[in-house]
Write the structure tokens for this entry.
Amino acid sequence: MAFHSKYVCQQCGYESTGWMGKCPECGTWNSLVETIISTGKGQWVKGKRGSNTPASKTVKLSEIKQTTTKRISTKISELDRVLGGGLVPGQAVLIAGEPGIGKSTLLTQLAASLSTGDKTSSTVLYVCGEESATQVKVRADRLGVKKSGIELLEDTDVDSVINTIDNFQEKSLQAVIVDSVQTMTTSDLSGMAGSVGQVRECAFRLLKEAKSLDIPLFLVGHVTKEGTVAGPAVLTHIVDTVLWFEGDKTLTTRVLRAVKNRFGPTDEVGVFEMEDRGLRPVDDVERVFLEKDQKHVSGSVATSVMQGTRPILVEIQALIVPTKMSFPRRVAQGIDSRRLELLLAVLTRRCGLPLYDSDVFVNVAGGLKVTEPATDLAICLAIASAYFDKPISAKIIAVGEIGLLGEIREVVAQAKRVKEASRLGFTTAITSKDFDYVGETIKKLLK
Ligand code: TYD
Ligand code: MG
């Protein structure tokens, strides 16, 4: 069937043969996207819709045999955890993250662990559209990867990549990695690499190929300044799994987060340390986010945040200094600054802490970002501890949400968090079970 492409407005459906900045029909800027249109003209048959499309067959739900999904372990424990126990044949995974966060490093390690040794029966195809094969080799050397089962392909033409995949011996290909989808182009479209139309079409073609051969496909996706995957939003819809790779580039901790997963739980996270020889999965997560050997210093309280099904212990640190300006400063790192304002208001009004003439700094140790209200109590206690300059025992963990009345509320999975903390040596848990109000807790612990 012959193809040609047109520019179609994503807002109103207006079609044009060339690109225009503004849609002449609805007036939206940059809404025209190059789209492939089939020229196969269909004939109208009475009583039937579309061209010669036959009716499809339905299947009875009760007649479908139950099969357990076969999982392929990536042998990278934290990646397996995020994927929900391993890869599923034909699964398309989009790995998104800022440049330099470690996407290529993770995928090189994945290629090494999926291709077993020298046997030709298990190869991984690594399409390097972004870097040259030599650059990938330099990285692999650094990671100590010597496997000969990794085939590198320096190509950006998606159709020739697909033909290359077809040429592999049946069942020999374990996975295809495309680094990155934004560099891929097809000559069927005239748009530039990275344009909405190109990214959408290339991803779609790769996906179809991977599904038809039952090979897991990994696509690297760039992230825009606004923090979304560059290219069409449809990219995240067509893949099975979207993994977000994040972390503070100045620190070594990296968090891999499943934001969409058709074959497993979302909200699950994997934690890695970026070391000089690659990413190391971290199983004993609490070590990373808790200051090692906590000293007896004021302004530090441990709490527990849920990352998926797993409680992670983090340390909240606070520092209070007399303000030198007409407006006191409130600096929050790792927590929402509006939440901090609210908690400071509660502390001032309900607990009698005159914080209006102090600068307040709050930080989550280890560079983790927490959004849960379950950390409220720990934040308040850390601030109060810093204010009175009295340390709170390192064996105490505080978990609870704080309301505007200063009351401590129960949080989800409270028992699980406390249990996990006691397993790791915390002796006292401060929660809504023992205290009703934050003011009362501060009095008990600090006065
Ligand atoms: P990279 O995987 O190239 O990032 P991305 O593909 O997401 O752009 O990783 C880039 C950073 O990781 C780079 O700044 C160097 C660092 N790095 C290490 O610290 N240790 C290593 O073993 C490797 C390979 C990279
Ligand atoms: Mg890269």
Remarks:
- The CA atoms of residues 92 and 207 lie 7 Å apart.
